[in-house]
Every structure is written in structure tokens, then in C-alpha cells.
Amino acid sequence: MKQLQASEVPLHKVFSSDYHFKIPDYQRPYAWEQDQAGQLLDDVVESMARSADEPYFLGSLILVKQAGVASADVIDGQQRLTTLTILFAVLRDLTAVHELQTELSDFIRERGSLSQGLKPEPRLALRPKDRQFFATHVQVPGAIGGLLELKPDSLKTDAQKAIQANARLFWEQLSDWDDGDRLALVQRLSTQTWLVVVSTPDLDSAHRIFSVMNARGLDLSPTDIFKAQLIGDLPDDQSAAYAERWENAEEDLGRTGFVELFIHLRMLVAKTRAKRELLKEFPEQVLSKYTPGNKTEFIDDLLLPYAAALETINSQQYEATAGAEAVNQWLRRLGQLDNSDWRPPAMWALRHHADDPAWLDAFLRHLERLAAAMFICRTYTTPRAQRYIDLLGQLDEGAGLDAPAFSLSQNERAETITRLSGDLYLESKTRKYVLLRLDEMLANTSGATYQHGLITVEHVLPQHPAQGSQWLEWFTDDERATWTHRLANLVLLNRAKNAEAQNYEFELKKQKYFTGKAGTSNFALTSQVLNHTVWAPTELEARQLQLLQTLRAGWRLSDDDA
Q1: What domain range includes position 74?
Q2: Last residue of some domain: 220, 249, 267?
């Protein structure tokens, strides 16, 4: 029978021979920053001002541990255990009181006992990549001074940098204290600071516990749980290698991006919209397809290839001997959309056709057309996601560039044109995207590398022309209402302009508002305006037809296009 134990344990018992903590390979590295470490110390110091009999609870530990056995795998709580060890080590090396120094050393290292059969060893063993560093530079008496002097380029991992940074923080805060105050802090930590220790001999039981508990510190990501489930049971000769591959992928994508990867993997495999949280759906819809004997296949055949694909999408740095820039330009365009639902199909393409840039160019052209149409028509989440799900299913069934989901129906094409023909400026989410794509089409280029944050959409005919201006001679009130916000009257600028200049007369506006230092515009769309001497309804009507035709051709929106 599986036995679950939960108890409140003071720190002097947590850091004793009752426990020998080990951080498994599959756990994330030590990652607390100075904000979290400093908050821990501040909280303990604040608790000292309260009643001496009032305990201070520091959170929980979740362990895989057999009853009566000191060895314990830490499932949740390594951030606190590591930070507390650093704190004890700093206090140890600052104190001039020999007895206190000895006691603090005992919190950090088991000195060993022949009579009890205990061997000398650190009470906390970090992951193998950082274990020796921690033992040498923290857990050995007198080591903190040397740790603080290490050069940044000698620190090989982010965990080692965090260890040094937090040790420096504690050293700077506590070095001005006298020995009496430091002793009081140690006493508060030792006897009045408690952890709730939850132990179970079964790894799966521990997973269930920490998946629902809210522990203090970095939020536990669902990917941490999946990692434990997949790598925790691997043989020793495999677990370290697969843990490193997993962590490298997570580091490439970042913690948030890595969770996004799993959301996309769920769609790629399950081909259905999410209905519940990832923690529940992913094991059922994805991990269940991998039996205990082939867990490594999930990592080798699914996780790592798609992580590489997503990293390429994020970085927009696809590489090939030829044709790479065309692919990257499509990724840059797609990256401007306000949703990420297009990413699973793009990941599928990069996963299966990474060695064929010409095919990727064509595929992403199709994908951008579909994505842009839904973006412009403001297709809401459910039908948009379903469209990409349909596309993924068709791709898995062998369809390629002719996948039916790529086709735009007559109604979809008509709706897209209607949106483009209306008051585009008022469509604040889509207007810049449309104009940037239009500018590329007009320039007949594969696309410039724009700094999109610096680009603004501006009116030629001002929204509020001054009384007596030429604008009011060229346009009646009804004509201004018709044309002010439509495509023909909009241009792109690559920097913000003085608001007063927006109302300049046409010739002055061309000179001071629509041109750069060299007297030209960076945008084909804007340069066209400079060729006009009059900006009146007749010119706008002709320009509207021409620009719409350019968009129709570029996005294949005519009646004979599907």
C-alpha cells in the first residue's frame, strides 16, 4: 500500500540526517533570481519582529521518499532548499562564533557518524550539471568568498550565475549585521521556520500531488510535470542525456515558449480544439500514444523536431543553401498577425520539408494568404482554429499545397475585398498589416526588413482639415466622409511626425510630412502620392481601384481564384 506522509518540519530537522536531498536529472535547473531570494530573507527577518513563539511557514516540499530512509528525490521545493543552503553558507562564513559556524556547517553537510553508519556528504545534491560547482563553492566551509570572486565567464550555466548572484545578495545584506543579530536570524530559521514536507514512495503519486499544490516560488509549469513523467522512469544511462536535450530545447525557446510548444503539439497530434487545461488534455491526447517502453520516441520524434521548428519560426532564421530569405520573409509576415493559430501548420511544414526551401516558400505563401484573409475578416477563434485543424488533418493524410483548407470560398474572398474596400483606417488591428503587404506588392519585392514598431499609418487628406484650406475646396463634407479612412487615402511613414503637420496643405505635406531627409519615402505606397499635384476625389477613386487590384492579385482574391 502506498503511504503518503505530510508533516510540519522545522528547518533544523529538514537540514539534518533525517533527509538526504537529491535533485533528479529531469528537474529544471536552479532559477531563483535575487528578487525571490531577497524576498525569502525579508520575510524571515520580518517574522523576527513578531512573537518568538509564532512559527513562520516557508512553503512545502514534495518528495519521493521511503519511510525511514533519508534519501529523498525532490519533486517540488528545490528552489527553496537551494536558496536556504546558500543563506546558511553565507551566515556560516560571516560568523566569528566558532560554535555557530560548526552548527551551520552541519545544516549544509552531514559530517558523518561511524556509530550511525552515516557517511560525510552534502545534505543537498543538485542536478549533475551543477552538483560539483555547488559542493565546491557553497557547501565547503569558507567557500563563499571565493564564489563571489569568480569571473562571469567561468560560470558555465544560468544556475551557477544565480547561485553566485544570490550569495552576493545575502552577503551584502548580512555583512553589516553584528554576530548577535546573525545569531538571532539563525535561531529564527532553525527553530521557528517550518516547511510542510509531503513524502510518498511513488513517483506518480508525487506528480499528482504537486500538480495541484501551489508552492511558493517559481510557478510549476505543466512541462515540468510532463518532463518528470517522461524522464523520471528512464534508466540511469538515458535519463541524464534526455534531460539535457529537453533542457536545451527549453532554453532555446524560453520557459513561456516551451509551454507554447506543448500547446501546439497537442493540436498537431490531437487535431482538436482545447477544451480543458493542458495538464489534463496533453497526457490523454498525446502522451497516451507513447507506451512506457517508448517514451524516448516522444522526445526524439515529436518534441525535439517540433521544438527546432518553433525556434526557427520565432527567430525567423531558417537556413538553406538557397531560398532561405523567401522563407524567412513569410515567417516575418506571419509573425505580425495577432494570433498564433497558424504556427502548428508552419511547424508541420518545417518539420517535414526543412530541406526544401522552394516547397516551404510555396506552402507559407498559401498559409499567409489564408491567415491574412481570416485576419482581415476578423474570423473569431473557434472557426479560425478549426480551419487550421482541418489543414493539419489534410496534411497528415497526404495533401500538400492542394489541401482543401487552403482554398478561400467565394464568400470568404468577397468578404475580404469588402473589408479592404471600406474604412480600413478604422480597422486598427489590421490596417498596418494590409498596408505593409500592399507596399511589398507595389514594390514587387520579396519584402524589406521593416522595423514595424516605428511604422505609422497616416492620412493624406487630413481627418480634420483647417478652415479655409485647399482640402475643403477639393472635397465636400460627404466626399471627405467617403474617402478619409479608405485605402486610397492612407500611406505608411517610418517615424512619428509632428501632429500639426498632419493638416498641412498638400504640397507642403508632401515636402515635410511624406518624405525623408533625401526627399523620398521608404515606401512605394507613399512614394506614389508624391507624383500627384492634386489630391481630390477623382484621384482617390482611381487610386482605390488600382490598389485593390494589386491586393486582389497578390492574395488571389478574384472570382477565378480559390
Answers
A1: 5-220
A2: 220
Residue 434 neighbours by CB distance under 10 Å:
22
How far, in Å, CA of 112 to CA of 121, rounded?
Answer: 7
The residues facing 125 across adjacent strands are 22
Inter-residue contact 193 to 55 (CB < 8 Å) = yes
Q: What is the pTM of this model?
A: 0.70
Residue labelled with grid coordinates 495541484: 212
Separation CA 103–CA 88 (nearest Å) = 10
CA-nearest of 457, 402, 409 to 430 is 457
Q: Quick one: 336 and 247 in the same domain? A: yes
Distance CA 306, CA 300 (A): 10
In angstroms and rounded to an integer, the radius of gyration of the C-alpha atoms of the chain is 31
Question: In whole angstroms, what is the distance from residue 273 CA to residue 381 CA?
Answer: 10
Q: Read off the pLDDT of residues 7-20 as tens digits, 9 standing for 90 and up.
A: 899 999 999 999 99
Residue 403 lies in a domain: no
Q: Which cell numbers hold the place of 482? A: 467617403
99 located within any domain? yes
Q: What is the distance between the alpha carbons of residues 248 and 170, in angstroms, rounded to a whole number? A: 30
Q: Where are the alpha helices (DSSP H) in 175-277?
A: 179-192, 203-212, 222-231, 236-270
For 292, the 3-state DSSP assignment is helix
Count of all residues that appear for the chain in the document:
562
Domain check: are 12 and 73 in the same one? yes
**pLDDT tens per residue, range 134-143:** 999 999 999 9
